[in-house]
Specification:
Nucleotidyltransferase, domain 5; Rossmann fold; about 30% helix; about 375 residues; alpha/beta; five-stranded mixed beta sheet; about 25% strand; four-stranded parallel beta sheet; single chain
Length: about 375
Amino acid sequence: MQNMILLDIETMDFGVESGIYEVALMVIENGEVVLSEHIAEVKNGTLIHLGMGEGYADISEDDLKKDQFRNIINRYNYPVVAHNVSFDRKFLVYYGWLDEDYECYDSIRAIKYENPDLFSYSLGYLSSFYNINRPLKHVALDDVKALYEVILKAKPTLWVPLYKVAPSKLKNFVEATANVEGKSTIFQGKRIVFTGASPFPRVLMKEIASKCGAVVTGSVSSKTALLVCGERPGSKLDKAKELGVEIQTDEWFIDAVSKDLNLETVSVTRQSIAATNEKQEKNIVEIPEWEGRSVNIALLPVRIQRRVEDILVRQIKVKKINKGTNGYKVDVIIHSDDGEYALVKKAEELQIETVPLSQFNQMILGYKE
C-alpha cells in the first residue's frame, strides 16, 4: 500500500479499562511521510523515558484529543496500519476515537505473508533482522517511525483487512462485484457514507451511489452530504448529527434511485480468484563453517529452540546441541536479541562465537540489503 496511516498507542495494561496515554500517527502518501503527529498530555516529564505511557495523562475521554485524531483520519481517509492492529483498534473503538468499521490492517500479518520464515515478528526483532538501528522504548512516536522503516525494508505486497480470513486458509479469494443498469444525477458530486448492518449488499449500495454520480467515502466529515444508515450505525451517526449531515435509511436510498435505475436487473457476482500471493517456504542456506560444531541454544525461547534445533541438526549438520545455561564448552552460542545474558558475556571473554537470533535468521535465509 502506498497510502496508509501508521498508528501506535500506549496503554498501561491489556484491558481497555486501563485507558489510552499516547497516540502516534504517521500519514504515508505515495510511499512518503507527509505528517507525523503525537497526541498526548505530559503529566510528569521525568517518567517519559520509561515508556509504556509512563509520565503521560490518561487521554481516553479527552474530546479535544479525540478531535485532533479524528481530524487527521477524516482528512486523509487512508487505511490504518499498526503492529498488532487488533490491540490498538480495540482501545480506539471502545473510547470512540475510531469508527468500528474503519478499514484496518495488521503489519505483522502483511510481513508474515511476505517473509514466512522469520522466528519472530515483534517490532524489535524485525528492526534487528532488517538492520534498523533504532532503539525501541515503547514510546508511541518512536515505535511508529520504526514500523515505517520496517515496512520499507520488508516491502509487503499482500495486505488483508482485519477480520478477513488469511489467504493461507483459502484456496481461492472471493471478489464481489455489482452490476447496475442505468444512470442518474440524483447524487451528482455528493459525498455519501454508508454505515450499519443492511439487508442490501454493501458492494451493491456503493455501485448504485457511483451510478448516481456520488463519491463514496468511509468516514463522516464536514464535506459529507449524506449518511445512509442500516441497523446499529454506531459513532458515524453521532458525528453526522453533530455536523448537521443529512441522515437517511437504506430503504430511503433504494427508493430514491429506483425511478432512474433498473433495480429489477441488479445482480451481485462473486468471482473466485486464485490465491497466487501465498509464499513458499524458502530453502535454508547452508553454513559450511558450522558443520560438525557444537551450538548452545539455551538463551532462546522454548518454542523457537525446537525450530532452530531442527535446522541446525537436519540442514546445517552441527555435531551437538547444548541447552544448558552454563554451557561454555561449545563453538557457537545463538541467543535472543533482547536482554543481557551472563552466558554471552562469559562466552565473549572466552572468544566463543555469539550470534543473535536475528543474525542467524539472516544467515539461513541469505538476507542481504
